[in-house]
Amino acid sequence: MRQGDLAPTFSLVDQHGQTQTLEQLLVAGPVVLFFYPAAMTAGCTKEACSFRDNGAAFSALGATRVGISMDDVAKQSAFSEQHRFDYPLLADTDGAVAKAYGVKRPLNFLKVKRTTFVINQDRTIRTVISSEVNMNAHVEQALAALVN
């Protein structure tokens, strides 16, 4: 997936057991969809907490933050509760959505490539952010893309 492509639709369950669709999430404005390899790991915790800590900046720009991994609902729920995340964490347990977005790894080790998509309300991808080691780059670059 690249800038200008149409983001694949999806329907997944969040950490509260509620079904979320891309279309529903886009109603309020752009969506910042970040794929992370695994809940409860150091890098993913740092990234997810950065999205939490910058919530006001995303809200000011009308954007909805959404995390997604191949973890199940129970693990997403525990991760969210432990760190008090104020945004949905979606359970893509079979990796179908990760595959549709081109971020699923061929082997299950680390499962997905750490990638963030800023998606416009018309489902076009505004920007794609890929950084496996700089966890803060995802938030910084997503905010910059929303301003432009």
Please explain how this structure is put together:
The chain is an alpha/beta fold and 148 residues long. Helix content is 35%, strand content 22%. A seven-stranded mixed beta sheet has the order 2-1-5-4-3-6-7. The radius of gyration is 14 Å and the shape is globular. The relative contact order is 0.24.
Main attributes?
148 residues
In short:
With 148 residues, this protein is an alpha/beta fold. The chain has 6 helices and 7 strands. It has a 7-stranded mixed sheet.
- Structural class by secondary-structure content: alpha/beta
What is the general shape?
globular
State the strand order across the main sheet: 2-1-5-4-3-6-7
The number of E-state strands comes to 7
Radius of gyration, in angstroms, nearest whole number: 14 Å
Give me the number of helical elements.
6
- Average pLDDT, rounded to a whole number, is 95
Strand residue percentage: 15-25%
Order of helices and strands: EEHEHHEHEHEEH
Q: Give a short account of the largest sheet.
A: 7 strands, mixed
* Termini gap: 20 Å
Helix content: 25-40%
Low-confidence stretches: none
List the helices and strands and how they pair.
Elements: E1 11-14, E2 19-21, H1 22-26, E3 31-35, H2 42-53, H3 55-60, E4 64-69, H4 73-83, E5 89-91, H5 96-100, E6 115-119, E7 125-130, H6 135-147
Parallel strand pairs: 3-4, 4-5
Antiparallel strand pairs: 1-2, 1-5, 3-6, 6-7
Helix pairs in contact: 2-6
